[in-house]
Design brief:
The structure is a single chain. By secondary structure, the chain is an alpha+beta fold. Helix content is 40%, strand content 23%. The strands form 3 sheets. The chain has a 5-stranded antiparallel beta sheet. The protein has a 3-stranded antiparallel beta sheet with strand order 6-10-9. Strands 7-8 form a two-stranded antiparallel ribbon.
Length: 283
């Protein structure tokens, strides 16, 4: 049976095409839902098994579905992706709600479709990806986050531990980092050293010296804009946070923010703070 099933997540349509008991997700729907501002680029960069309706025609001579009314005259060029590429887009997404979307797709949408009786899946046609593939994709996401945020060793282990616990894996063999020098926030050390400047002024000097930089992440809030076709789309509002550069890591470390795992909080070594103040010419 060939059919298109439309689901909705927070006013975003999410379409799935079913052919010969296999699910293919509309690539643009999926990337837009996951907060990618340039869906086409996200599909090119992260998806490995993209096909189009034209490909479906070429592979299935009996395919007779006409979607020109729903998708326009160029509907055969519409891109489709399998479940494995959905996972890749989820892992690469920086959208705060990506995990909720993952749960919605994998734990609600697909199980519901597979129970409706509209089609049945046999073991040899199932598109579910293995635990091994899921873990590989999860750790690609962890690796990318570590590289982007430049977090300290303890935070790296913490992120890896989160993935292990998510899949009920043993964590006892993970190393414990208890020997790192304790660090403090800029505010705490400025007060302790009797420095009469604000954290904002301190951060400006740190940025000027190349020790600190401002990064952004997508927040849970959105603004509405119109795309090239005049259709209103939701664009995530970016939130700024500070992160120590490679140069700045000599004087502290980036901790994962307790408010959001995609943010860092710069913390500083007390033993190096006097030297840092001297370099910044803060008396």
């Amino acid at each position: 049976m060939n059919e298109i099933i439309t689901k909705n997540f927070q006013d975003n349509n999410f379409r799935i095409f079913i052919i010969k008991n296999k699910e293919f997700f509309f690539a643009k729907d999926t990337s837009s839902l996951l907060g990618y501002t340039n869906p086409q680029k996200a599909i090119r960069d992260h998806c490995k098994k993209v096909i189009s309706f034209k490909d479906v025609f070429n592979m299935n001579e009996s395919f007779t579905l006409d979607l020109s009314r729903e998708l326009g005259n160029n509907w055969k060029q519409t891109k489709l992706i399998p479940e494995s590429d959905v996972w890749r887009l989820i892992i690469k997404s920086r959208l705060p709600e990506a995990e909720k979307i993952e749960e919605w797709i994998m734990e609600e949408v697909l199980p519901q479709i597979r129970k409706t009786g509209s089609y049945s899946l046999s073991s040899d046609t199932s598109q579910e990806i293995s635990l091994k593939e899921k873990l590989e994709l999860e750790f690609v996401g962890v690796k990318n986050t570590i590289e982007i945020l430049r977090v300290n060793q303890a935070s790296k282990i913490g992120m890896i531990e989160v993935v292990h616990k998510k899949y009920d894996l043993e964590t006892s063999y993970l190393p414990k980092y208890s020997d790192e020098e304790h660090t403090y926030s800029a505010k705490a050390l400025l007060e302790k050293f009797g420095v009469k400047i604000s954290v904002q002024q301190f951060n400006k000097k740190m940025i000027s010296a190349g020790f600190l930089e401002t990064k952004t992440r997508k927040s849970s809030k959105y603004k509405t804009e119109k795309d090239e076709n005049g259709k209103e789309v939701k664009i995530p509002i970016l939130k700024e946070f500070k992160s120590l550069t490679e140069k700045g890591l000599e004087f502290g470390k980036n901790l994962i923010s307790p408010k959001n795992q995609l943010e860092t909080q710069p913390h500083y070594f007390e033993s190096k703070f006097s030297e840092l103040l001297e370099i910044l010419k803060i008396g």
